[in-house]
Amino acid sequence: MAPVDFIGRLHAGFFDYAIADEMHELANDTAQGQALGTLASCADRTLALTGTYSGGTPMKPFNNLFA
Q: Is pTM beyond 0.70 here?
């Protein structure tokens, strides 16, 4: 079992904060993005950090904000 699946099943609501760096890499429909969603659902608050907000394409900010 993947550690993030274990956390998602047994520790929902356990964490106060989930902090993700390089959010622009995690925003799309990838395994890492889905893992972030699982961790975010287990935390009361989520802080997403990135230094590359736009990524050069118009869809990158959309994915970061609404995905």
A: no
